[in-house]
Amino acid sequence: MILRLYLFSLYSTAIISAGLAGMIIFNINPFDAPFWMIMIFYVSVFLLLLAIFGLIGFYLKVWATNREVIFAHIIPTLRQAALMAVAIAGLLFLQQLRVLNWWVGILFILAIIFVELFFRGRKK
Q1: What confidence tens digit (pLDDT) does each residue in 83-113 have?
Q2: How far apart are CA 68 and CA 85, in angstroms?
Q3: Residue ranges covered by each domain of the chain
Q4: I need a surface site. Which of 5, 79, 84, 112 has the fewest CB within 10 A?
Q5: CB atoms inside a 10 Å sphere around CB 51
Q6: Tens digits of per-residue pLDDT, 43-96?
Q7: What is the band of 124 on the pLDDT scale with cuts at 50, 70, 90?
């Protein structure tokens, strides 16, 4: 994948999902909304967080390595951004179900950290 296409897709995903999440937040009553509308909200929040964390992580890794091997940062950054987005969207979902407290949140975050450690520890 060309780097420009990667960055363009992340920017466009962030803009579109931010607009969709904003429209849902300001126009939909969550107590009367059907299930599919709530799922669209969570998907748009996930995509927004994925794009934001992906862009921030990519630019931080490029800056930290002084612009060396830029293409090597794309896949790990997207994986880490997806895990952070799953963590935040999952915590939002647990809060909606009213089952989120501090120990459930810590266990959920630890599970996601262990998934990342699994991917880092794999041998190629």
Answers
A1: 999 999 999 999 999 999 999 999 999 999 9
A2: 27
A3: 3-121
A4: 5
A5: 23
A6: 999 999 999 999 999 989 888 888 777 777 788 899 999 999 999 999 999 999
A7: low
